[in-house]
Amino acid sequence: MSTVTPVSTNTSQQVVRKKVTTLTFRQKKERGEAITMLTAYDYPTAMAMDKAGVDSILVGDSLAMVVLGYENTLPVTMDEMLHHARAVARGAKSAMLVGDMPFMSYQISVEEAVRNAGRFLQNGGMDAVKLEGGRERADAVRAIVGAGIPVMGHLGLTPQSVHQLGGFRAQGKTASAAKRLFEDAKILEEAGAFSLVLEAVPAKLAEYISKQISIPTIGIGAGAGCDGQVLVTHDLLGLFERFTPKFVKRFANFHAEMNKAFTDYIDDVESKRFPAVEHTVEMTDEEWKEFIK
Ligand code: KIV
C-alpha cells in the first residue's frame, strides 16, 4: 500500500489522489518509502494503474517492442511516442507522467533535445522526460532542466545502445565499469536530473549508488536497494510472450487469458450461443407490425 500519496475528496465524494510530483519523489526517498513506477502506453491501462495508486507512469520507448512489435526500441518516433503519451495523460490524473525520449530525439544536438523534451510537456501531457546515457548527455540534461522540464536519467542497460553494448546485457559488473557508472550517476545528479533509472546492474552497485546520491534511483533488474522500482507492464501482466527478462516478476498471465477469451468468443459465435437475447436490441410488436404491413 502506498503510504505517501495524500488523498483528498472531490465534490462527488470520489477519493482523488493528490498529484505526484518530483517533490513527492524526493520526500519518499528521504522517508525511505519505496517509489512505484510502471509503463503504460494507452488510456485504459493508465487509468487502471492510476486508480491502483502507482506513483509514476512511464510512457516508455519499450512501446516499440511490447506494443508495436519491433525487435528493439530504436524505430519508435517522437510522433508515435506523443500519440501514446496523450492517451496515457487522458487516463491518469494523479501519477507523475514521464515521457521517454526516443532514439535520436536528443542525441543530435542540445537544441533538439530541449525542443523534443518540450513537446512531451506541450503536446504529450507529460510532467517530465526520461533519457538514456551518462556523461555524454550531461549538457542535454542541464539544458532541458534549464528550460524547466524535469529529467529522469537512465543508466546501466540502456536499450537504445543495444548495438554498442552487444545485446541486452547486464552492465557495471566489473570494478572499472561500476566506477564509470557511479561517476555517471553523480554527473547526472549534478546536471539536475531529479531521478535515475538503473537497469540491469548488480544489486550491490545499485544500492551503493542509491545511498551515495541525493536523487531517487528507480531500479529495474537492479535489486531491492534502489529507492523505487519500475517494470514494463506487458512483462508484469504476462502480455509480452517473446521473451521475459530474468528480473521480471509476472503478476498475471494475460496472454493466456486473452487467448482463452478469444477462443471462447469464436466458439460462441460459431455455435450461435452469442449473441443471446440479453445482448440484442428489440422493438415493440406494434412498431414491428407497422413496419412489415
Ligand atoms: O522504455 C522503458 O520501458 C524503460 C523502462 C525499462 C525503464 O525505459
Describe this structure in words.
The chain has 293 residues and is an alpha/beta fold. It has two domains: 22-252, Phosphoenolpyruvate-binding domains (TIM Barrel), CATH 3.20.20; 257-292, no CATH class. Helix content is 41%, strand content 14%. The chain has twelve helices and ten strands. It has helices spanning 22-31, 43-52, 63-66, 78-91, 110-122, 138-146, 162-165, 175-191, 203-212, 233-236, 254-270, 285-292, and strands at residues 7-9, 15-17, 35-39, 56-59, 96-100, 128-130, 151-156, 195-199, 217-220, 228-231. The protein has an eight-stranded parallel barrel, surrounded by seven helices. It has a two-stranded antiparallel sheet with strand order 1-2. Strand 3 (35-39), helix 2 (43-52) and strand 4 (56-59) form a beta-alpha-beta unit. Helix 2 (43-52) packs across helix 4 (78-91) and helix 5 crosses helix 6. It is elongated, with a radius of gyration of 22 Å. Mean pLDDT is 95; it is low at 1-6. The chain binds 3-methyl-2-oxobutanoic acid.
Helices and strands, with pairings:
Blueprint: E1 7-9, E2 15-17, H1 22-31, E3 35-39, H2 43-52, E4 56-59, H3 63-66, H4 78-91, E5 96-100, H5 110-122, E6 128-130, H6 138-146, E7 151-156, H7 162-165, H8 175-191, E8 195-199, H9 203-212, E9 217-220, E10 228-231, H10 233-236, H11 254-270, H12 285-292
Parallel strand pairs: 3-4, 3-10, 4-5, 5-6, 6-7, 7-8, 8-9, 9-10
Antiparallel strand pairs: 1-2
Helix pairs in contact: 2-4, 5-6
Bound molecules: 3-methyl-2-oxobutanoic acid.
